Amino acid sequence: MNALALGLRRARFETAVYFRQGDTVFFTFLFPVVMLTIFSVAFSSAGNFGTKPDGSGGITAAAFYLPGMIAAGILLSGVQNLAVDIAVERGDGTLKRLAGTPLPVLSYFVGKFLQVLATSALQIVLLLLVARIAFQVALPADASKWLTFVWVYLLGITTSAVLGIALSRVPRTGKSATAVIVPMVLVLQFISGVYLSFSQLPSWLQSFASVFPLKWLAQGMRSVFLPSTFETLEPGGSWDAAGTAAVLGVWLVVGVVAARLTFRWIRKDS
User: Fold this and answer.
1) Long-range contacts made by residues 142-151, C-beta under 8 angstroms, separation at least 24?
2) Which of 105, 115, 166, 178 could make an S-S bridge to 259, C-beta 3.0–4.6 Å?
3) Per-residue pLDDT tens for 9-56?
4) Average pLDDT, stretch 157-174?
5) Phi and psi at residue 197, in whole multiples of 5°?
6) Hey, CA dihedral for 150, 153, 156, 158, is it positive or negative?
7) Inter-residue contact 223 to 229 (CB < 8 Å)
8) What is the DSSP string of 171-238?
9) Confidence band for 266, pLDDT divided at 50, 70 and 90
10) Do 72 and 194 contact (CB within 8 A), yes or no?
11) Backbone φ, ψ for residue 228 (5° rounding)
């Protein structure tokens, strides 16, 4: 209980530090909002997505890109934010100094995770507000849709967080962390149905992207925010909720194991 209480205090500190870093706030918190705005405005004159042959139906560009931007925001908040942040803390000696304090390792990770949980949730609220108020996107009215949103979000943000911890060991120095992590995350966004329609990608690239969690996270969010008519565009013609849960679950286990093996702040009390 003491470790959890310290974790809560650490989370407040981590969140305060997060919002004091302008570049971090822009590239992990505001970036999906900016991209949603750009795509919504840029494609506003192209007509609705998914319009029927008779010209009826379809959804606006803002509605089409909203689930992808939510999924990208989760990835940025978990993977990119933690991978870069922990790599920098390792490089500048912060982790070494923390190792000399009574702060348990569990409290450190609780603080990191709660910071990611809080900032990503706030980011999604902001995305939904922009989509609804600025672009008149109709949000789901079905309670089952929001139930799907909750479990996809919680599983997705937890998986992203542990993968971010594991990937923080990849950069050799704190100074190179951004240059190493950001391109990896950006490529995943382009091949996972965030910026480009997943059904329009070559089949081999779809198969490759399906190995990684972002494709399934984006697909899970599309099942919440897109009409059922878009389900046929998914691989196999289904939202495949079971597949989403399975792949994210596997990556969660992989991330936990990798983080445990690669994180080097090891003390007797850990």
Assistant:
1) 145/223, 145/224, 145/225, 146/224, 148/220, 148/223, 148/224, 148/241, 149/221, 149/224, 151/245
2) 166
3) 999 999 999 999 988 899 899 999 999 999 999 998 878 887 876 666
4) 94
5) -60, 125
6) negative
7) no
8) SSSSTTHHHHHHHHHHHHHHHTTSSS-GGGS-HHHHHHHTTSHHHHHHHHHHHHHS-GGGGGGSGGGS
9) very low
10) yes
11) -65, -20
Instruction: Assess contact for 25 and 18: CB atoms under 8 A.
Output: yes
105 CB-side CA count, 13 A: 12
CA angle (208 as vertex; 123, 181 as ends), nearest 5: 45
Nearest to 225 by CA among 48, 68, 47: 68
Task: State the average pLDDT over residues 163-167.
Answer: 95
Q: In which residue are the tokens 């565009």 written?
A: 233
Rounded CA-CA distance 194/165 in Å is 23
What is the average pLDDT across 220-242? 93
Task: Express each pLDDT in 99-125 by its tens digit.
Answer: 888 888 889 999 999 999 999 999 999
Helix (H) or strand (E) holding 68: helix 61-75
Q: Structure tokens of 184?
A: 């990896």
